[in-house]
User: Which sequence fits this backbone?
């Protein structure tokens, strides 16, 4: 089955760091995706983890622990434009379908 | 035009109307998806087409009818919808294998009166 949990909302100050956690229970797990979605816009791909460890891409990093069924997205040096919803999604083996969490709305304040 | 496009961007319809949503991808992908996004709820996968064949129908009511005439185009035909069907309908495409990330269109905001 699929069960993806992430916090509903987070607030942080410009320049700060925020960590968005995601836990999943996915049979035949084969990869964890993070997407960013600004209000009224399409979700856009941020990162993909299939092996344990940290993947860094500029100000954004994503971590995966397969044994714990856990991932996080780390946003550093927050900017106002980072205010958006962040979606965690898990993929099953041999299956191109994704199961999404409800999204975490991050609000960056000056 | 690049990426995934959807038309219309906004649609208001009565419960007795028939309308269609259109999605087009210019990425050379061979899998396309319809999702429903309601406020504060996870994206719900509705339909998946791979190589123009429907490979997934997630217990979606028959008032939603998908059509995939070729690998670049995907339609969602709507008829006799209910107010609870009001939502953002997102189209996505991907290539199987590798990272397999899905690329999303901007969505159609549907309101059923």
Assistant:
């Amino acid at each position: 089955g699929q069960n993806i949990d992430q916090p509903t909302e987070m607030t942080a100050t410009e320049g700060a760091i925020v960590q968005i956690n995601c836990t999943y229970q996915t049979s035949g797990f084969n990869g964890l995706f993070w997407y960013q979605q600004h209000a009224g816009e399409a979700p856009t791909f941020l990162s993909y983890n299939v092996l344990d460890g940290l993947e860094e891409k500029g100000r954004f990093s994503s971590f995966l622990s397969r044994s714990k069924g856990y991932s996080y997205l780390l946003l550093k040096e927050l900017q106002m434009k980072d205010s958006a919803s962040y979606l965690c999604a898990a993929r099953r083996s041999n299956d191109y379908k994704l199961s999404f969490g409800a999204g975490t709305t991050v609000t960056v304040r000056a | 035009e690049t990426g995934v496009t959807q038309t219309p961007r906004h649609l208001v319809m009565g419960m007795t109307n028939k309308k269609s949503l259109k999605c087009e991808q210019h990425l050379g992908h061979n899998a396309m998806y319809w999702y429903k996004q309601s406020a504060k709820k996870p994206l719900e996968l509705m339909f998946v087409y791979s190589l123009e064949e429907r490979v997934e129908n997630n217990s979606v009511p028959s008032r939603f009818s998908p059509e995939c005439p070729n690998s670049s185009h995907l339609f969602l035909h709507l008829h006799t919808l209910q107010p609870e069907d009001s939502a953002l309908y997102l189209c996505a495409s991907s290539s199987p294998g590798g990272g397999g990330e899905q690329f999303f269109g901007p969505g159609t905001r549907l309101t059923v009166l």
Q: What stands out?
A: Chain A has no helices and eleven strands. The longest strand of chain A covers residues 18-26. Residues 20 and 73 of chain A are 5 Å apart (CA to CA).
